[in-house]
Amino acid sequence: MGLTEFLATYITAFIEKTGYVSVFILMTMESMIFPIPSEAVMPFAGFNIAAGKFTWWGVLVASTLGSIAGSFISYYIGAYGGKPFINKFGKYFLLDKDDLTFTERFFARFGEITIFICRFIPIVRHLISLPAGIARMNIVRFGIFTIIGATMWNMFLAWAGFTLKKNWELVMRYSKVVDIVVIVVLMAAVAYFVYRHLAKHRRGKSNAKRKR
User: Quick one: pLDDT band at residue 17, thresholds 50, 70, 90?
Assistant: First the structure.
């Protein structure tokens, strides 16, 4: 069994056994500051739709409610905890302050529409609810933009997984090539994470020297 088949088989099986509850919980975490990408959840929910284990409506409701719950939790963390809370506890969720700063500037520049736009942008989608809360964005508009953006993105990923599963025999014909691509992507992600960590560490040392 190749890497691609292994991941697809076991992640799909996990989501199938835990049901819509896992989709809801994982998407709640994804919409908060936990480093869980929707790309690692929703396509496999789509796999289960293709296998007849899930329904489109069930996946839509579970994923959308999860995204809404996570986004509102982050909103209220930003509104009532603000930057002090994030600076103190963000490290426990692998929250990068540079990413948060970028997200805040993005929100300040483009306004409330960023709540919709950022549902389609990796990393930023995990954080965008925080500056919305800090800015005390109108809660109704926040909810509307979140629901529309999250539903579109979640169901696109589910549809991608559904389509992939329907053409699984074709995918397996080129499994070796797919495995190589997956491995390269994973290695690039790890390398990027290490680079960011080292760069941040160097900046911290440089700032400490300047203060002396």
Answer: confident
Tokens of 4: 């691609």
pLDDT at position 160 over 80: yes
User: Which has the closest alpha carbon to 79: 118, 128, 131, 116?
Assistant: 131
User: What's the CA angle centered on 20, arms 17 and 21, to 5 degrees?
Assistant: 90
Joined together, the tokens standing for residue 204 give 């911290």
CA dist., res. 29 & res. 151, Å (int): 16
State how far the alpha carbon of 112 is from the alpha carbons of 79, 89, 165, in Å. 15, 26, 36
> Do residues 128 and 77 touch, judged by C-beta distance below 8 A?
no
* pTM of the predicted structure, to 2 decimals: 0.72
